[in-house]
Protein backbone atom coordinates (compact mmCIF):
# COMPACT_ATOMS: atom_id res chain seq x y z
CA UNK A 1 0.00 0.00 0.00
CA UNK A 2 2.86 2.39 0.76
CA UNK A 3 4.39 1.70 -2.67
CA UNK A 4 1.15 2.76 -4.41
CA UNK A 5 1.29 6.18 -2.75
CA UNK A 6 4.93 6.69 -3.79
CA UNK A 7 4.27 5.87 -7.45
CA UNK A 8 1.44 8.40 -7.87
CA UNK A 9 2.49 11.62 -9.55
CA UNK A 10 1.15 14.83 -8.11
CA UNK A 11 -0.29 17.20 -10.71
CA UNK A 12 1.47 20.55 -10.42
CA UNK A 13 -0.78 23.49 -11.19
CA UNK A 14 0.73 26.20 -13.35
CA UNK A 15 0.57 29.61 -11.70
CA UNK A 16 -2.03 31.75 -13.44
CA UNK A 17 -0.55 34.85 -15.06
CA UNK A 18 -2.09 37.84 -13.34
CA UNK A 19 -3.13 40.66 -15.64
CA UNK A 20 -2.94 44.18 -14.23
CA UNK A 21 -3.61 46.72 -17.01
CA UNK A 22 -3.90 49.73 -14.68
CA UNK A 23 -1.45 50.37 -11.84
CA UNK A 24 0.67 52.86 -9.97
CA UNK A 25 4.33 53.88 -9.99
CA UNK A 26 5.82 55.12 -6.73
CA UNK A 27 9.10 57.03 -7.10
CA UNK A 28 11.08 57.98 -4.02
CA UNK A 29 13.90 60.27 -5.11
CA UNK A 30 16.33 61.26 -2.36
CA UNK A 31 19.74 62.85 -2.75
CA UNK A 32 21.41 59.49 -2.10
CA UNK A 33 19.20 56.98 -3.94
CA UNK A 34 16.10 56.52 -6.08
CA UNK A 35 13.58 53.74 -5.35
CA UNK A 36 10.90 52.77 -7.88
CA UNK A 37 7.93 50.51 -7.15
CA UNK A 38 5.25 49.37 -9.61
CA UNK A 39 2.02 48.45 -7.82
CA UNK A 40 -1.54 47.51 -8.66
CA UNK A 41 -4.47 49.82 -7.83
CA UNK A 42 -4.61 48.65 -4.21
CA UNK A 43 -0.90 49.29 -3.63
CA UNK A 44 0.35 45.68 -3.75
CA UNK A 45 3.89 45.71 -5.17
CA UNK A 46 4.33 44.03 -8.56
CA UNK A 47 7.99 44.93 -9.10
CA UNK A 48 10.52 47.22 -7.49
CA UNK A 49 14.06 48.38 -8.07
CA UNK A 50 16.51 50.99 -6.85
CA UNK A 51 19.70 52.58 -8.07
CA UNK A 52 21.63 50.64 -5.45
CA UNK A 53 20.10 47.34 -6.56
CA UNK A 54 21.23 48.06 -10.13
CA UNK A 55 24.88 48.17 -9.09
CA UNK A 56 25.41 51.88 -8.52
CA UNK A 57 27.43 52.74 -5.43
CA UNK A 58 28.16 55.89 -3.47
CA UNK A 59 27.29 59.25 -4.96
CA UNK A 60 26.39 57.66 -8.33
CA UNK A 61 23.18 56.26 -6.80
CA UNK A 62 21.64 59.73 -6.62
CA UNK A 63 22.12 60.54 -10.31
CA UNK A 64 19.42 60.81 -12.96
CA UNK A 65 21.05 58.06 -15.04
CA UNK A 66 20.90 55.61 -12.14
CA UNK A 67 17.19 56.41 -11.67
CA UNK A 68 16.57 55.75 -15.37
CA UNK A 69 18.30 52.34 -15.24
CA UNK A 70 16.39 51.37 -12.09
CA UNK A 71 13.08 52.37 -13.68
CA UNK A 72 13.90 50.37 -16.82
CA UNK A 73 14.56 47.26 -14.74
CA UNK A 74 11.33 47.52 -12.74
CA UNK A 75 9.23 48.51 -15.77
CA UNK A 76 10.42 45.50 -17.79
CA UNK A 77 9.19 43.12 -15.09
CA UNK A 78 5.88 44.96 -14.61
CA UNK A 79 5.13 45.04 -18.34
CA UNK A 80 6.26 41.51 -19.22
CA UNK A 81 4.84 39.59 -16.24
CA UNK A 82 1.72 41.64 -15.48
CA UNK A 83 0.90 43.48 -18.73
CA UNK A 84 0.89 46.92 -17.12
CA UNK A 85 -0.10 49.58 -19.68
CA UNK A 86 -1.59 52.59 -17.82
CA UNK A 87 -0.10 54.04 -14.66
CA UNK A 88 -0.61 56.81 -12.12
CA UNK A 89 2.73 58.25 -10.97
CA UNK A 90 3.37 59.24 -7.35
CA UNK A 91 6.63 61.13 -6.79
CA UNK A 92 8.15 61.73 -3.38
CA UNK A 93 11.40 63.53 -2.66
CA UNK A 94 13.65 66.16 -4.18
CA UNK A 95 16.44 64.13 -5.80
CA UNK A 96 17.76 64.27 -9.37
CA UNK A 97 15.98 61.05 -10.31
CA UNK A 98 12.45 62.49 -10.25
CA UNK A 99 12.16 63.59 -13.87
CA UNK A 100 14.43 60.90 -15.27
CA UNK A 101 12.30 58.14 -13.74
CA UNK A 102 9.07 59.59 -15.16
CA UNK A 103 10.63 59.87 -18.63
CA UNK A 104 11.85 56.28 -18.41
CA UNK A 105 8.29 55.08 -17.69
CA UNK A 106 7.04 56.71 -20.91
CA UNK A 107 9.81 55.12 -23.00
CA UNK A 108 8.43 51.67 -22.06
CA UNK A 109 5.15 52.48 -23.79
CA UNK A 110 3.16 52.99 -20.59
CA UNK A 111 0.50 55.67 -20.63
CA UNK A 112 0.73 58.07 -17.69
CA UNK A 113 -2.76 58.94 -16.46
CA UNK A 114 -1.67 61.39 -13.73
CA UNK A 115 1.40 62.63 -11.85
CA UNK A 116 1.03 63.35 -8.12
CA UNK A 117 3.71 64.98 -5.98
CA UNK A 118 3.68 63.54 -2.45
CA UNK A 119 6.81 65.33 -1.22
CA UNK A 120 6.56 66.21 2.45
CA UNK A 121 6.24 69.90 3.28
CA UNK A 122 7.42 71.08 6.71
CA UNK A 123 4.79 72.90 8.76
CA UNK A 124 6.18 74.70 11.77
CA UNK A 125 9.78 74.07 10.81
CA UNK A 126 12.72 73.64 13.14
CA UNK A 127 12.96 75.10 16.62
CA UNK A 128 14.19 78.72 16.49
CA UNK A 129 17.50 79.71 18.06
CA UNK A 130 17.34 81.07 21.57
CA UNK A 131 17.41 84.83 22.11
CA UNK A 132 20.89 86.24 22.65
CA UNK A 133 21.84 87.41 26.12
CA UNK A 134 22.99 90.99 26.60
Summary keywords:
single chain; 134 residues; alpha/beta; 27% helix; 25% strand
Structure class? alpha/beta
N-to-C SSE string, H for helix and E for strand: HEEEHEHE
Q: Count helical runs.
A: 3
Measured distance between first and last alpha carbons: 98 Å
The overall average pLDDT, rounded, is: 89
What radius of gyration results from the CA coordinates? 22 Å
Number of strands: 5
Strand order of the largest sheet: 3-2-1-4-5
Portion in helices: 25-40%
Beta fraction of the residues? 25-35%
Shape category: elongated
Largest sheet, in brief, is: 5 strands, mixed
Low-confidence stretches: none
Summarize the structure.
With 134 residues, this protein is an alpha/beta fold. Helix content is 27%, strand content 25%.
How would you characterize this protein structure?
The chain is an alpha/beta fold. Helix content is 27%, strand content 25%. The protein contains 3 helices and 5 strands. It has helices at 2-7, 64-82, 97-107; strands at 22-29, 34-39, 45-50, 86-92, 111-117. A 5-stranded mixed beta sheet has the order 3-2-1-4-5, covered by helices on one side. A hairpin with a 4-residue loop joins β1 (22-29) and β2 (34-39). It is elongated, with a radius of gyration of 22 Å.
List the helices and strands and how they pair.
Elements: H1 2-7, E1 22-29, E2 34-39, E3 45-50, H2 64-82, E4 86-92, H3 97-107, E5 111-117
Parallel strand pairs: 1-4, 4-5
Antiparallel strand pairs: 1-2, 2-3
